[in-house]
Amino acid sequence: MSKNTFTDLYKIKIILLLISSFLSKGASASEKIFNEIGTGLSEKGIYLDFIKNSNAKNKFGIRVNYLPEDFFTHQDIYVDETNVKAEYFGIGMLYQYYLFPKESRSNFYLQANADISTFKLSHNIDLTKETYTENNLQFTCSACGILTIQTDPDKVHIVPTISLGYQYKNTPNFKTNLSVGVQYIDPGAVENFTNTKYSLPSYVQSRVDKSVQKTQNKIDEYSEFQPSINIGFSYVF
């Protein structure tokens, strides 16, 4: 198995352990670790919430965010005509404060959560299809392989988010949730590598260096404060 396969299996194991902990407790709400479960979509992919109702207006929980590579919501991200791939996995604490009594069919809430996460933004350049110029001569490099430019996938990030949400009770137990907010996220520095064992010629390496710097400059252009949008459903047991 590849390293990515082991990583995906580890992420799935964490999610299954949370679900198992939730289902293994007794039927009484006071005995359960969580008494509400939610799921939906956000800019970080699929989210899964495990929530404990501490009192009428305060809720605490755990949120898991998972964005696999090539997920349908993130397939067509282009920067300067280059397809950028994104992966994300995070788990963290969740807090919600409701503005109206829990009996209200429509309610607004303030939400704060912070992920401990790993993520990767990456794109590939086929160096074998590029044309290079040196001393007024043009070259190609059939042995140069594929260049990957990416953020560090092993770096651990803390991603805090503050949101304003709206909740509608479809039934006493089933709810629709929508929230909009802002998050702090810092991708950091990019790294690069090729899938070939050969050293790159100087005229290719200079092109690679320019591409890496251009990618870093593009990342640095974006603010570290980014919008966050979540839409999903929850069910109270």
Descriptors:
alpha+beta; elongated; Porin; about 240 residues
Sheet/helix structural class: alpha+beta
Physical arrangement of strands within the biggest beta sheet: 1-2-3-6-7-11-12-14
Low-confidence stretches: none
Shape: elongated
Number of helices: 2
Helical residue percent band: 10-25%
The tally of beta strands, per DSSP, is 14
The CATH architecture assignment turns out to be Beta Barrel
How many structurally independent domains?
Answer: 1
Mean pLDDT: 85
Ends apart, CA distance between termini:
38 Å
**What is the string of SSEs from the N terminus onward?**
HEEEEEEEEEEEEEHE
In CATH, the topology is named Porin
What does the main sheet amount to? 8 strands, antiparallel, barrel
CATH class, please? Mainly Beta
Strand content: over 45%
List the helices and strands and how they pair.
Layout: H1 3-24, E1 36-42, E2 45-53, E3 58-67, E4 78-79, E5 82-83, E6 85-98, E7 106-126, E8 132-134, E9 137-139, E10 146-151, E11 157-169, E12 174-184, E13 190-194, H2 202-221, E14 225-236
Antiparallel strand pairs: 1-2, 1-14, 2-3, 3-6, 4-5, 6-7, 7-10, 7-11, 8-9, 10-13, 11-12, 12-14
Description:
By secondary structure, the chain is an alpha+beta fold. The chain has one domain: Porin, CATH 2.40.160. It is built from 2 helices and 14 strands, in the order H-E-E-E-E-E-E-E-E-E-E-E-E-E-H-E. Strand 1 and strand 2 (45-53) form a beta hairpin. The mean pLDDT is 85.
